[in-house]
Write a structure and sequence with these properties.
about 475 residues; mainly alpha; Sodium/glucose cotransporter; 22 helices; about 80% helix
Length: about 475
Amino acid sequence: MAGDYAVIALYIAGMIGVGWFGLRLAKTKSDYLVAGRRLGWFMYSGTMSAVVLGGASTVGGVKLGYTYGISGAWLVIAIGVGILVLHTLFARRLVKLRVYTVGEMLDLRYGGSTSTISGVVMWGYTLMLTVTSTLAFATIFKVLFNVPSWAGIAIGGSIVVLYSVLGGMWSITLTDIVQFVIKTIGILLILLPVSIVSAGGFDGMAARLDESYFELTAIGGDTIFTYFLIYSFGLLIGQDIWQRVFTARTPGIATGGGVISGVYCLVYGLAGALIGTAAKTLYPNLASAQDAFATIVEQQLPAGIRGLVLAAALSAMMSTASGALIACSTVSTSDLLSKLGLKKAGNEVTRNRITTLVLGIAAIGIAMIVDDVVNALTIAYDILVGGLLVAIIGGLAWKRGTRQGALASMVVGASVVITFMFVDGVEANSPIYWGLGSSLAVYLLVSFLTPRTSDEILTLWTRRLNGSAAAEEEEAKLAASQS
């Protein structure tokens, strides 16, 4: 394992080094939270792909392939479709708004008084996403060093917190690009072809596995529908995803780079399912499908190369964890702490660094004491989609929507989701179905029964959608330089 240790050590040192370099770039709030809104095509598509393809898409995608065959790709395909829809329909408008959070967009569109409710929901979602991503570190470090779970969580979590605190979104973006390259090489260019060849090619797999492993719908139509409902819609409105959209230099870069990222996700999903299918062919009697990724890496790859692929899995987990952490920090400072009068207290970058550090330590602590937070993440996703989707998409697509309608849809949608979780269970599909349906009905009804949003608010909204915020920022910079 000496070669593997060397590769992993080099990778970890590189992440910390890149984080330290990002410290020099994060001089303003815009730098720290959205990388100065300066990312080009390659960096944008790379960092977007890195943040959405985490441990669940990598280790979990192989697990689904081991269990269901190629239909196990649907989870990551749903993620890819969500990225494609977001960037083809909404990304241009989001970039032009020049905001930092989903809550700020809602306040701008509806005239205020909405970001507190949306901020609480988004804060819970991003914190739980950080916890689950941090929890996943235990798997990789257990394979590498045979350390207990809490130690693996502490090692991986500390690295993420360190580089995230140092340079904020700049550090996260730079590390994401490195992680994106490592994932592409390790998973797509090494593990995928080695797995298929070792399993005897497609003919060899077909001869030894049940026909259902090569049916696109073997995982079940209900499951596929639920993946799209939760993950595709969740990606349309998640703060961790929107914050990456805000980093694009231009609306065109956001659209084009996002489409590239969406296609990459589709390829990545199919690759994970095929690796899992090959693992089923080679090791049909594993005690747990969760072990499929680690087993095929350990058994089929030589030292050094094995370390690179494990680093790829580690990259997937770190990119998601860091993206969720900076999103949680941004919601905390912009949507929640500002309501307590802390908006102008001290230097903005320092305040964001402290918040990121506190939340990172909290996420590590929660991950250490909780064995399985999958249900908690399901709760967070269901409340996010059931409570916020209608108000957000309605605000972007329907001018007749009102602030009262948005607030009512958030409260009712989230409440119905929680109620049906108690009635039918966390893993049931009914909470999200009833939550979305009730949220939409209330949004439409209350919006029609309340006065239209004032022309003043809609005029400002339209001006921002047309790019006035960018022009105003440039004028402010010019005036500051001349003075």
